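can u pls check wat happens w/ 5'-O-(acetylsulfamoyl)adenosine
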Amino acid sequence: MSGKEYPISTEFVQQAHVTPEQYDALYAQSIRAPKQFWGEKALKFITWFKPWNEVLTGSFEKANVSWFQEGKLNAAYNCLDRHLETRANQVAILWEGDDPSEVRKLTYAELHEEVCRLGNVLKKQRIKKGDRICIYMPMIPEAVIAMLACARIGAIHSVVFGGFSADALKARIEDVDCHLVITANEGLRAGKTISLKKNVDEAIQDCPQVQRVIVVKRTENAVPWNAVRDVWYHDLMADAPKQCPAEMMDASDPLFILYTSGSTGKPKGIVHATGGYLVYAAITHYYVFDYHAGDIYWCTADIGWITGHSYTVYGPLLNGGTTVIFEGVPHYPDFSRCWDVIDKHRVTIFYTAPTAIRALRREGDAWVTRAERHSLKLLGTVGEPINPDVWEWYYNVVGEKRCPIVDTWWQTETGGAMIAPLPGAMPLKPGSAAKPFFGVVPAVVDEQGHDVPAGVMGKLVIKQPWPGMMQTIYKNRERFIDGYFKEFPGYYAAGDDARCDADNYFWIVGRNDDVLKVSGHRLGSGELESALLHHAAISEAAVVGVPHAVKGESLYAFVVTKADVGISEQLKKELIQQVRRLIGPIATLEYIQWTDGLPKTRSGKIMRRLLRKIANNDLKELGDVSTLADPQVVDNLIKNRIDLRDV
Ligand code: 7RM
């Protein structure tokens, strides 16, 4: 399990920011004297209007960690203004549309001007510091402009992925309590339109607090219009002034809220504070991707996810980079799309998810090799474990054995990469996220919180605070404490299972709670089950993940209908439709097994662990079923399980 090793080419090592010796020394330093380490880095990577009093206060025990207290800064200023002197005419955003013929380039000067204008537009709409704004947009430059305009005036952005349904959007708008939504009339994806504005209309039908919807015109198609509430982005921008001072923000002021799925209940609003988040996004982007001036950097993540926040927008712009914003998908117009984009724009760094790599690998090498890919120097992956075979394909075929792969483990909650190989500083092992980033102290522990020996699987925890860590869960401090700091007092519980080998390389196994990753999208069993229970015919439901060759995981549902309801193919279709409608097309049930009952503990909790084993036909060790209220249920479930399709 310590795995095969790939040394980094000497050519790469020569240009890398960190040598192996430097990594060991810097890492040791960052752990021994974290305040000194982060204080120095915070000054190097971020421009402060006023320095902090204390680098770090609080503790995991009290769940009150705070970074750079009293420090003053502004995110948009750091992403834009401070680069104007040296990079005004450098491209900041390199946008490629869904249709390859559509390309837009915005220099730092242009992006700065747009952000200032929109900042003024928002102020004119009476948006003030601390107000929340919901952004529901396709991957177009205006989405980034919207995020940065919020940051500039001190408003808190809450980006909702454009693939979420009207209902999912509504739940997020209600929780975050915003008065203004920024959207587009339509999105484009693989040549098809996505009705974003229509979804917003539906979402806010009974959200009276939303008084204004700003709409970017992305397509020429007309959309329903409410003349009192809706305004065109372009009309407002036309006469907006170009001067907009960057608001002085406290390091602890929230920069954004981003909703993510937990194992139970509604999605949680992860709050990231301005100071620590920006320091961590900038420094990790610089070291993990070995970022150098002149790089053309492409992270394929949508801004609706944390990867889009930290590594499509904030990280690269903080470092004065050129970030590719890609509206399209890897299979349109054909399976060469990514490699064509790389050749066309001379992309040097490419960061994507294992699900995309698996989908492309399946189509054969010719789609890759028909493009040159000479510009590439580094590859990255994030979102789920990458299987060693898939890693090797990415390394050998896409990167032609020339480009190191950074397999980055992190979470919405962590703000930035936590475990990842620093390219040049350590050999790579396919399937391992390698070693911790500076200042990060991960460990694998048993149920009692004791470190387990090398090679043994256990739960992944983080033992010391790091600057990128979330501040809280919006309006729910209790869930913040219970979810992350209760299980192992004094540690942050990541919710993943992992192993650490004798070389101190971490191997992430997967979630140990009921969070799922389908095509890299994070979904919670609880919200999927709620969506099923919404159907009048359903009395109980449990959803688990089963392996899928491309998606990583797919959804297997156990469903109990109400007593007087007959089961049918029609009902199955309705359920699939319903979950897609309530959450979004990313939540498509793959299997539905009808059952008369679900296995429950005597206290009434559904035993999802057992259901996962049944769905996966992993029946040898069903674990402790002694707490089951009705053991007979299990036999019936096994008898009626659905054979997983060979995908
Ligand atoms: C960035 C992101 C977080 C969960 C996390 C893991 C899984 C992420 C890796 C990974 C294995 C990786 N944020 N995960 N990266 N598993 N190797 N390199 O994905 O909040 O959406 O998800 O994703 O389970 O806990 S997220």
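The mean pLDDT is 96.
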